[in-house]
Target: 2-hydroxyacid dehydrogenase
Amino acid sequence: MKISFFSTQPYDKHFFSTYNDSFGFQLEFFETQLNAQTVSLVENADAVCVFVNDRVDAAVIEQLAARNVRIIALRCAGFNNVDLEAARINNIHVCRVPAYSPEAVAEHTAAMVLTLNRKTHKAYNRVREQNFSLNGLLGFDLHGKTVGVIGTGNIGASFCRIMKGFGCRVIAFDVIANREVEASGVEYLPVIEVLQQSDIVSLHCPLNDQTKHIINSSTLAMMKKGAMLINTSRGGLIDTPAVIAALKKGQLGYLGIDVYEQEEKLFFRDLSADIIEDDTIQRLMSFPNVLVTAHQAFFTSEALTQIALVTLQNIQELATKSNLSSKAALLV
Ligand code: NAD
Model:
């Protein structure tokens, strides 16, 4: 059984090759993203393994079906980049890794809150240049602040636990309340109230038709002046030009993003010697109160281990037509 991997980095090859020993699949790694231009690279593969920025639309799926690919294995939790209906029509199974390490993403979210607040990134550079002044590094106590969490699934629930540990009041909105989260003292409120009451808003819902640009000029206007917004979920949750306008007015006090709507042309690459044509990301990065990380929230060795093991197990179970161990892993 052959699996063609797209968008691979050295760490993908390392973790998948290590854990493939007990599965014995033939693995082929491509650095390029999967899209309509690159799908022709797939030859004699039974499965393709894709990541967050591979574009698995209907045209690509038809090409995969024509090449007898039977499985699309996402090595991530989100699946907004795959046309599930096209996969269904073409009899291709789609599986994912529903929860490889929610803590990895929740902890990175907390790191972004702390960095933006206490400016440790600036302090690090300052001290290295023998500048021991504290001017401009003033932060605020997290203890007693209100944190609003939108989406309390695996990652949102973990983030709620962390922020409660800091002594924050945690409020949340989700289309389905998580009873365990509620029992831990998190109050569910309508989304408008969460936005109005929070000092920090963190997004942990999936990207879909209901959540696209959930943060836009109207919802930004509902937020407390000077509040912090964190997005470690998917870039499309935020209307970026509206966020830039809110930052310019001071309506938004801090922005931390690990994801960006146009990230597929930028993230996971070293572009340090290139001219970036995307003026929006350049404008974002020019603000002193904006922190951008390049989709690294998942990036812990525990998460990469789980991603490799669960992805290979999903493919094995689908190939042998047995039931997937986790129902949530099978999308089509
Ligand atoms: P999950 O499915 O466990 O939780 C998502 C939650 O969002 C669910 O409770 C769901 O009911 C809720 N939800 C759905 N629609 C909603 C809406 N309209 N408003 C509010 N809540 C809504 O998913 P998860 O594992 O917690 O992951 C959340 C998201 O994080 C994923 O969709 C993915 O996009 C992103 N993610 C990012 C990284 C990263 O490295 N930055 C890594 C993993 C996942």
